[in-house]
Amino acid sequence: MSVKITNKSKHPLPQYETKGSAGMDIRANLEEPILIPPFGRNLVKTGLYLEMQNGMECQVRPRSGLALKRGITVLNSPGTIDADYRGEVGVILINLSNEDVEIQDGERIAQLVFCKVEQVELIQVDVLSDSKRGSGGFGSTGVN
């Protein structure tokens, strides 16, 4: 599977860091650092533009190390980039720590995961078939 990419940033193309990686790290493309205050959010540009085939999406996901060490995560996680979107990839970062966090140009801020998707036809009915689980949710199958 291939995806077309235009890189208008000053940084190398995203890449898989290991053979088993599901996501490619993407970098902030900034003229100057961005300061995100506690519980503040900011749209961080990447300088990347994608062209995917219909039937694909690109998910923008947090980087676990950034979340653990600095309290930074992707606000609308996972963010979705649709196959027909051609604009610049931006990442909405939120600071969940109690301290200001500075994002530097070139810093790895999120990861991209490419997935196959299908569009479905919704069929309106008056009654759904029963299942073993029924309407139980939010922990109804147990916690262990």
Characterise this structure.
The protein is mainly beta. The protein has a single domain, classed as Deoxyuridine 5'-Triphosphate Nucleotidohydrolase, Chain A. Helices cover 5% and strands 38% of the residues. It is built from one helix and ten strands; from the N terminus they run βββββαβββββ. The strands form three sheets. The protein has a four-stranded antiparallel sheet with strand order 1-4-8-6. The radius of gyration is 19 Å and the shape is globular. The mean pLDDT is 95.
Helix proportion of residues, in percent?
A: under 10%
Major sheet details: 4 strands, antiparallel
Fourth CATH level, the homologous superfamily = Deoxyuridine triphosphatase (dUTPase)
C-alpha geometry: globular
Please report which band the strand proportion falls in: under 5%, 5-15%, 15-25%, 25-35%, 35-45% or over 45%: 35-45%
Tally of strands: 10
Provide the spatial order of strands within the biggest beta sheet: 1-4-8-6
CATH-derived topology = Deoxyuridine 5'-Triphosphate Nucleotidohydrolase, Chain A
Poorly predicted tracts of residues? none
Radius of gyration: 19 Å
Average the pLDDT over all residues and give the rounded result: 95
Overall CATH class: Mainly Beta
Structural class, by secondary structure, is mainly beta
Tally of domains: 1
CATH architecture: Distorted Sandwich
Distance between termini? Answer: 38 Å
Number of helices: 1
